[in-house]
Amino acid sequence: MSSADELIALTGAEAAARVRAGDVDPAELFAAYRERAAAEDLGAFTWLADSPGEPPPPDAPLAGVPVAVKDLFCVRDVPSQAGSRILEGYRPPYTATVVERLLAAGAPLLGKTNQDEFAMGSSNENSAFGPVLNPWDRTRVPGGSSGGSAAAVAGGLAPWAIGTDTGGSIRQPAALCGVVGLKPTYGACSRYGMIAFASSLDQAGPLTRDVTDAALLLRAMIGRDRRDSTSVEFPGAIVPPRRQDLRGVRLGVPEELCGEQSGIEPGVRERFEATLALAEQLGAAVERCRLPHAPHALSAYYLIAPAEASANLARFDGVRYGLRVDGERELTEMYCATRAAGFGAEVKRRIMLGTYALSSGYYEAYYGTAQKVRTKIAEDFASAFERFDFVATPTSPWVAFPLGSKLEDPLAMYLNDFCTVPMSLAGIPAISIPCGLSQGLPVGFQLAGPAFSEQALLDAAYALELALGFDGSAARREGGG
Amino acid sequence: MSARFEPVIGLEIHVQLKTRTKMFCGCELSFGAPPNTHTCPVCLGLPGALPVANARAVHFALKIGLALGCEIAPRSLFHRKNYFYPDLPKGYQISQYDVPLCRGGRLGDVRIHRVHLEEDAAKLVHVSSSGRIHGSERTVVDFNRGGTPLVEIVTEPDIRSPEHAREWLTLLRATLKALGVSDVDMSQGSLRCDANVSVRPVGAGELGVKTELKNMNSFRFLQDGLRAEIERQVGLLEAGLAVEQETIHFDPASRRLSTLRSKEEAHDYRYFPEPDLVPLLVDERMIEAARRELPELPAERAQRFQAELGLSAERARELAFRPERGDFFEAALASSDGRGAPPSSLANWISLLIERIGADGDPAESKVTPGALARLVAMVEAGEVSRDAGRTVLAELVRNGGDPVEIVAREGLGRVSADDEGLAEIIAAAIASDPDAAAKVREGSTKAIGPLVGYVMRETKGRLDGGEARRLILERLQARD
């Protein structure tokens, strides 16, 4: 028997080990989290499971440690609304592949987590189900769009969670909430059953308390899925990281993302530089590097992602599922009334941007050019990785900001993704780990590597994590409400 | 049509492939199944579902491309074609755009512009007393058809008349049928044809403004619709008016043309590469596999019938462009009874058979076996049965089947020999029946012999040929002198 607090204090990997050793009853573990999540007032969850279901087999790798899942993953018969009113009450008839894989690995579903509508946002304020509060400071945002997953893990409402990352939607909220967030290589995890935002960028990934947990969840999630043509067989295995130093590791610090003009706030810069110094102490070689096209990443991203979104969101017409607002007479009126009522302002803005960018006469100038920039950015990374093992940046230019402070200025909001979008466009993996506090709020340190370098990234992040000794327990105490 | 103008016609043909499953999901194709019983998250366009290209459909499209002599693209792309319509659950159709699977090619005297793969829309059923869209009380959607693999074949504007269009489409249909890739049934919608039509002064190099005639669902409607539209365009030009670029519907019942969409109302489909699908890569192995399965095609078959069997060009096409006729012809030739039947006679007798069973009839489904027809033709050729009696036997074969030798014996249809006493009497009676005619013939006016021949033919029930009868009457009349 353990007290709920003792159980909550365990990382996912620790809890799994205890369950496997017979020291912890997985039903008790589930109940402890279920109770905390039910009492939470962060707005992190949109739905909670009543029970963990069948107990996992004894050799299940995730050993009955429950997982929180971002709302936009379809789960059979469970509300899956992607943070949008237009999917009000929608319970899909099927389950997303990565969720199926987590369930099969022995992680029962704890609940669905709040998010920015259709993953469009960096503050979790664009949710039809209300904002999520940051457990480090309830007047501040948790980041987004996977804000519910990040806040749930940081606040001790879930042992671990999964989210999706299109331009930073795992890494940025992980940074702002002081947890670990990993965006895998594009294609590493199946997108089947993930309600799409921008198909060529969306990737599922873990949000966890530490790097070891991220490795455990990632291992259960990856692999080719014949239902997703863009998924691939992951080369090599993911194992728990063991590395304790960074000897021989070459870290490139891109001038374009970290230089004076990048808008990184001083407290974040200070923690970032200190972490680089720590990396050097661990044996890494740290040097400035160039990603010449990276400053154009946001512009390209805000053409490509909305263009794809404008098509992906066309299916929400009120005919077959979700919200329907009847028009006066015609079908077109029903479409218009449904979409007017069902989509939030940011989603509408991006649908319009994307529709415009694909329009006849504008396609080449906007979408075509953006794709060329995307190729250039991928080439920039490829040449950087000829000299460096990883590229390092702050994950977010700033710490968690006050609720409402950027809502009126979409461009300022988009700058949240300044350091995370280039990796998304290049399709490469990147991890954010907490590297300390600034103004009492967590700062995220991002490492990005070549495609399918996840194991190396996890190893390096683990060595840094050990040296950093970041303590997130304060937020877990707060999270309980 | 005015002699001053010539039409220029290009066709766009949609062919439903008869694969087992749909283009992008595992649902089975179905005709006549209860509505919405062959659906899944993918073909219903549910959130999170992803398409996966059907390898069999690609194989079929390759067969079509090779049969039409197209160049096969080693790498082609799927695009999203965006528009809102209730038969399109994703809000876009997955099609191919600027990099199609096949380009170029030729069938008969018409060049092929391109051949590409796409998915069919769902079926809208307008529920109303009139059956028309306008004024219908409601429309219901059957998604069984949605996602059926389609191949679109686009010709160059090489067709010069409605009759030419009809003849060429017949050849295309026969070719597709021989390939075994589609039911090619226009009334069931597995073969659908749109036409781009313009007219220009005879001898002009430039093309006139074209209109698009939609969905002519029979060979006759295609011909009639084209005639009506060409007439309309020539009328406009002769009156000094301009042809407007528009999309036109032809109502075969009223023979009326009506505008569906003007140029201003044309859709902007906002094509962009489908990010949910990887490029379609075709290697030599796939092309070889498709090539190996190519049967002898109708155009080649017609060539062979002409060159090797000595049929006229027209007769060769008649048989080869309707594979069921060609097959029957070759089966009759191959039968042991076909030895005494020269191919050209056999071909002529098949035409006679088709006159009896109707142009849409399949001779193989009649009661006449290829062997029986061959035997009959051999008997006629050997002079055992007159041509007229042969027709009587054919009629009996069509009615009741059986063996022509037996029918001839049973019905007493064997040729009357010239030295038959009964025949001499009949000839005498014929001359006696019309002394005037006999006198005129004697005087050298051989034209007057008609009634006498008719008498003999009637009395012998056609058991000898008209020429033979004529010869014998003349002989008799001259002998009297």
3D structure, described in words:
The complex is a heterodimer of chains A (481) and B (481). Chain A contains 17 helices and eleven strands. Chain A has 481 residues and is an alpha/beta fold. Chain A has a domain of 265 residues: Amidase signature (AS) domain (Amidase signature (AS) enzymes), CATH 3.90.1300. An eleven-stranded mixed sheet of chain A has the order 1-3-2-4-6-5-10-11-9-7-8. In chain A, helix 10 packs across helix 12. The relative contact order of chain A is 0.15. By secondary structure, chain B is α+β, with helices and mostly antiparallel strands. Chain B has three domains: 288 residues, no CATH class; 114 residues; 60 residues, Arc Repressor Mutant, subunit A (Orthogonal Bundle). Chain B has 15 helices and 17 strands. The relative contact order of chain B is 0.09. Classes of the chains: A alpha/beta (481), B alpha+beta (481). The interface between A and B is large, with 46 and 29 residues.
Helix and strand topology:
The complex is a heterodimer of chains A (481) and B (481).
Chain A: H1 4-9, H2 12-21, H3 26-39, E1 45-48, E2 67-70, H4 97-104, E3 109-113, H5 147-154, E4 160-165, H6 171-177, E5 180-183, E6 203-208, H7 211-221, E7 250-254, H8 255-258, H9 266-281, E8 285-289, H10 297-312, H11 331-342, H12 345-357, H13 364-387, E9 390-394, H14 410-414, H15 421-426, E10 430-438, E11 441-448, H16 454-468, H17 473-479
Parallel strand pairs in A: 2-3, 2-4, 7-8, 7-9
Antiparallel strand pairs in A: 1-3, 4-6, 5-6, 5-10, 9-11, 10-11
Chain B: E1 5-16, H1 55-67, E2 71-72, E3 75-76, E4 79-82, E5 92-95, E6 102-103, E7 106-107, E8 110-119, E9 123-127, E10 138-142, E11 149-155, H2 162-179, E12 191-201, E13 211-214, H3 219-238, E14 246-251, E15 256-262, E16 272-273, E17 280-281, H4 284-292, H5 298-309, H6 313-320, H7 323-334, H8 343-357, H9 370-381, H10 387-400, H11 404-411, H12 421-433, H13 435-442, H14 450-459, H15 466-480
Parallel strand pairs in B: 13-14
Antiparallel strand pairs in B: 1-11, 1-12, 2-6, 3-17, 4-5, 4-16, 6-8, 7-8, 8-11, 9-10, 12-13, 14-15
Helix pairs in contact in B: 1-4, 2-3, 5-6, 7-8, 7-9, 8-9, 8-10, 9-10, 12-14, 14-15
